[in-house]
Amino acid sequence: MGHIKLTNVIKSFGAIDVLHGINLEINDGEFVVFVGPSGCGKSTLLRTIAGLEKPTGGDLAIDGKIVNDVPAADRGLAMVFQSYALYPHMSVRQNLAFGLENTRMPQAEIAERIAEAARMLEIEPYLDRRPGQLSGGQRQRVAIGRAIVRRPVAFLLDEPLSNLDAELRGSTRAELAALHARLSATMIYVTHDQIEAMTLADRIVVLRAGRIEQIGTPLELYNRPANRFVAGFIGSPH
Ligand code: ADP
Ligand code: MG
């Protein structure tokens, strides 16, 4: 499961209106990418879905249940940030276990999930190292691993590759696509990188100043952009 529906979601910070009524339905297993210029509200939208921001208005439903008042930790989602957010004093293994240990999950199950995620992400050799002893790419894998072990209904990724150099970004992008195919989980992915959006997305949501300009497959947006803004953002000649 991992069906997410937003109905007229509004978010304001005091007098600043950031999201102006977002209507969006994301299907189970879909890879949806949010694009748009800096400051248009991509992170706010993602954080609102995650439960890290409370919507000022509207409804958010996960698998048919309104979750407006459900705390972030109980929504069955996992968020991956650009800045890794790993605990520097803990080993990779402990970082992966964190968040599972305050559930009632048996230790054997925790160990099994860590082993599986480590295998998938090829970070087995680093399990006993600390984040400071890893490269940026390895740290980002650990951050993704920390999401995987929770077996979320959806992954929310906020510019997860933007701290990596170009080459590593390319290879990690391909791994993310493979991971999505393998996990068949819903993924919502924020980026301002057109190539990432075009190659990863089942559908792209183009945002501008807190509103959705267009939603469509990469090909639809490329071939039939709704306006010049979308065309410019997607790199379409239309
Ligand atoms: P993006 O991720 O697309 O760059 P953000 O969602 O981070 O955009 O920000 C959208 C707008 O909301 C910006 O104008 C930003 O300054 C504002 N904003 C975001 N978070 C807060 C906050 N906690 N308090 C006040 N304004 C905020
Ligand atoms: Mg952002």
Automatic annotation (TrEMBL):
Specify the protein's topology with respect to the membrane. Answer: Peripheral membrane protein
Keywords of this protein's UniProt record, alphabetized? ATP-binding, Cell inner membrane, Cell membrane, Membrane, Nucleotide-binding, Transport
Looking at the keywords, is Cytoplasm present?
no
Q: Which domain of life is it from?
A: Bacteria
Give one GO molecular function term.
Answer: ATP binding
Kindly list the places in or outside the cell where this protein is found, as annotated in its UniProt entry: Cell inner membrane
Where does it primarily localize?
membrane
Q: Where is the ABC transporter domain?
A: 4-234
According to its UniProt record, which protein family does this protein belong to?
Answer: Belongs to the ABC transporter superfamily.
The name this protein carries in UniProt is Sn-glycerol-3-phosphate ABC transporter ATP-binding protein UgpC
Naturally occurring in which organism (per UniProt): Rhizobium herbae
Lineage of the source organism? Bacteria, Pseudomonadati, Pseudomonadota, Alphaproteobacteria, Hyphomicrobiales
Q: Which residues of the full protein are shown?
A: 1 to 238 of 357
